[in-house]
What does this fold into?
Amino acid sequence: MTQTSKPLIAAALLLVSACAPVETWYKAGGTAGQSTADLTACRVQAVRTVPANTQIGVTPIRSTPPRTQCYGKGDKLRCHTVPGRIYGGQRYSYDANAPLRDDVVTQCMARLGYRPVSLPACRASQKPAVLVDRGMPPLTPDSCAVPTRGGTVIVTPS
It folds into this structure.
């Protein structure tokens, strides 16, 4: 990869991610900062309630048989054998309790009055000049989201 292509790839990834919907938690009147704090508290509770259960797995093994390819040239026959190959068999680890822990986080956030929402990322024309977290506005079809360090700010253009 050349030095010139790296910035182009980074710019392309940024453009694609800017088009992707923003997944966040919504609570009417809540703030992005409070949502982030509540989500962290729910994640901590979930880790305490459902500890990690690391399991080891192995990818399936498959193989291809050896094959011989022959071709003739004049009155001579030449053959070449390609050996068979074995694929898979790699070990990996996973947390068997991760889905259950995700359920605990979702239930905790629901108890606090949040619901998961997927909003489009705000276009430049939709973003206010100064982004202030004044609370989550009522959602409309025009609502969009701006991810920030302090959480996701939801914007409903007027």
In short: DSSP finds three helices and ten strands in the chain. The first strand starts at residue 22 and ends at 26. The two ends are 46 Å apart (CA to CA). The mean pLDDT is 87.
